[in-house]
C-alpha cells in the first residue's frame, strides 16, 4: 500500500520561505513522477508542481513559477518543495502524489497522505 507523509508546513508572513518534504513508502518510487498539490479552504484541489522520474524535468503552475522549486531524492523516496516569496494566496493544505504521468490524472485518486498546512498571514 502506497503511503505518503508530508511535513514542513507552518505559519509564515508574506515574503518568507518554507520547505516541504514528502516521504513515500510502499511504492517503487523512482518509477513515478512526483507532484505537489494544494487545496485552499473551500476551493478545489490544484496541481502546483511536478518532477520527472530522474529529476531532469520540472513543471510548475504559472502562479508559482520563479518562487517554488520542486526536487526529489530517489535514494530517500523523498521529494521537496522549496517555497520562497510566499503570498497570502499560497495558503492551503499541501499534498504530494506519485503518478505514472503528469497529465490526464485524476489527482484525488492518488492522494495517500494527510497533507501539511501552509498558512501565509500578516
Q: What's the layout of helices and strands?
A:
Elements: E1 3-7, E2 10-12, E3 18-25, E4 33-39, E5 46-51, E6 58-60, E7 68-73, E8 78-83, E9 92-99, E10 116-120
Parallel strand pairs: 2-10
Antiparallel strand pairs: 1-3, 3-8, 4-5, 4-9, 5-6, 7-8, 9-10
List keywords for this structure.
single chain; about 120 residues; four-stranded antiparallel β-sheet
Question: Would you kindly provide a written description of the structure presented here, covering whatever features stand out?
Answer:
- The structure is a single chain.
- By secondary structure, this protein is mainly β.
- It is 0% helix and 47% strand.
- It is built from no helices and ten strands.
- The chain has strands at 3-7, 10-12, 18-25, 33-39, 46-51, 58-60, 68-73, 78-83, 92-99, 116-120.
- The strands form two sheets. A six-stranded mixed beta sheet has the order 2-10-9-4-5-6, with no helix packed on it. Strands 1-3-8-7 form a four-stranded antiparallel beta sheet, with no helix packed on it.
Amino acid at each position: 500500500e502506497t503511503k505518503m507523509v508530508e511535513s514542513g508546513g507552518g505559519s509564515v508572513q508574506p515574503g518568507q520561505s518554507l520547505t516541504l518534504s514528502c516521504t513515500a513508502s510502499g511504492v517503487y518510487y523512482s518509477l513515478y513522477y512526483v507532484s505537489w498539490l494544494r487545496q485552499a479552504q473551500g476551493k478545489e484541489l490544484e496541481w502546483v508542481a511536478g518532477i520527472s522520474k530522474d529529476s531532469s524535468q520540472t513543471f510548475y503552475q504559472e502562479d508559482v513559477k520563479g518562487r517554488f522549486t520542486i526536487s526529489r531524492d530517489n535514494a530517500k523516496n523523498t521529494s521537496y518543495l522549496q517555497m520562497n516569496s510566499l503570498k497570502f494566496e499560497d495558503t492551503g493544505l499541501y499534498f504530494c502524489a506519485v503518478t505514472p504521468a503528469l497529465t490526464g490524472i485524476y489527482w484525488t485518486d492518488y492522494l495517500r497522505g494527510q497533507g501539511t498546512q501552509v498558512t501565509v498571514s500578516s
